[in-house]
Task: structure prediction
Amino acid sequence: MAAARNRLAPLDYVEEAIAGAALLVVIFATCWGVVTRYITEQPATWSGEVAGIGFAWLVFVGAAAGVKYGSHIAIDMLVVRLPGPLRRGLMLAADALVLAFLATLLVLSVQFSIDAWGDPTSVLRLPRTVTYSSVVVGSLCMLVRFARAAWRRWRGHSAAWLTMAAPAGAEL
Result:
């Protein structure tokens, strides 16, 4: 088990690495656009397009990181009040629904990305697939991370990939 864990260690933070790189691209492209527009008076026409591509990657892969950490909102005030078997059945149905949604999103985003290959962006003339593949990567990461969390939840473990201790006195 430890050997398998060590082999997968480089993949543990793939969402954070991609989203972090995308954030740097957005910041750089936006700053460069401002500098070239107001200081050099020769605007970099590509900066808005690059920032948009980086933002798409930041949003979709960042959402996958949220799934991994279990930080997306969940309103469970009614579910926790249900009797055990009914609660587990409802949770199973909800997990199945989310997995079906993510699988559908993955399939449709792959099809959409393939279809967008011949459609270039307006300034850089990159295939729009560069932008749309962020949905493919993000939905794949979300599907894998959510499936793992659901499996852990059904095995009686914490569903979050990493649980963080709350500061003292932070309890509600």
Remarks:
- Helices lie at 2-8, 14-38, 47-69, 84-115, 129-154.
- The CA atoms of residues 5 and 117 lie 36 Å apart.
